[in-house]
Design brief:
heterodimer; A: mainly beta; seven-stranded mixed sheet; four-stranded antiparallel sheet; 11 strands; about 50% strand; globular; B: mainly beta; six-stranded mixed sheet
Chain lengths: ~110, ~110
């Protein structure tokens, strides 16, 4: 099992550009989520999904879109990048196995100029 | 959103000393999780606590959930350089995870 994979590892964008961060998991988990991590702020939930076709907003959803057409994939779209979106982005999945253990991907480091 | 306060923000210890990080909430929690993130890495799940007064141990790590289920602690006995990283608590509320701001542990050899 590869677990949770994310691409790209690093990305530099100019203000106003759009891009999609990819996330995939091969554990057949129903729950998937996106976080951003900024210094001193911990991890903040952007969007989450409890199953294919179902998505919902987290704590900091503005400027981001998600979709969940399959169980495996949960892409995060930045519609018009802003410098405030410079961050490290983590995708995670959970099987709701009674412990709600979250498995995190390796992260994407995004710099918006 | 759910407020989970975590202290301290930073902790420097000599190798062999003990370390404790605390998470506190103003409301009663149904559960609390702990994660470890090594420098440059991603968070890794350590444990989940759900019962009032629960204590769980993993080798040198001891996790506690308060009797009122409003606070939790992670204690590391006799720290080693492999313990370096940031430790986060997290709570699950209505399908959303809320993380504490983390405690960054530095171990001085």
């Amino acid at each position: 099992n590869a677990g949770v994979t994310q691409t790209p590892k690093f990305q530099v964008l100019k203000t106003g550009q759009s891009m999609t961060l990819q996330c995939a998991q091969d554990m057949n988990h129903e729950y998937m989520s996106w976080y951003r991590q900024d210094p001193g702020m911990g991890l903040r939930l952007i969007h989450y999904s409890v199953g294919a076709g179902i998505t919902d907003q987290g704590e900091v959803p503005n400027g981001y879109n998600v979709s969940r057409s399959t169980t495996e994939d949960f892409p995060l779209r930045l519609l018009s990048a802003a410098p405030s979106q410079t961050s490290v982005y983590f995708c995670a999945s959970s099987g709701w196995d009674g412990q709600e253990t979250q498995y995190f991907g390796p992260g994407t480091r995004l710099l918006v100029l | 959103g759910q407020q989970v306060m975590q202290i301290p923000q930073y902790q420097h210890v000599q190798e062999g000393e003990d370390f404790t990080t605390y998470c506190n909430s103003s409301t009663t929690l149904s559960n609390i999780q702990w994660y470890k993130q090594r420098p440059g890495g991603h968070p890794v799940f350590l444990i989940q606590l759900v019962k009032s007064g629960e204590v769980k141990k993993q080798k040198r790590l001891t996790f506690q959930f308060g009797e009122a289920k409003k606070n939790s602690s992670l204690h590391i006995t006799a720290t080693q350089t492999t313990d370096v990283g940031t430790y986060f608590c997290a709570v699950l509320v209505r399908n959303q995870f809320y993380f504490g701001t983390g405690t960054s542990l530095t171990v001085i050899p």
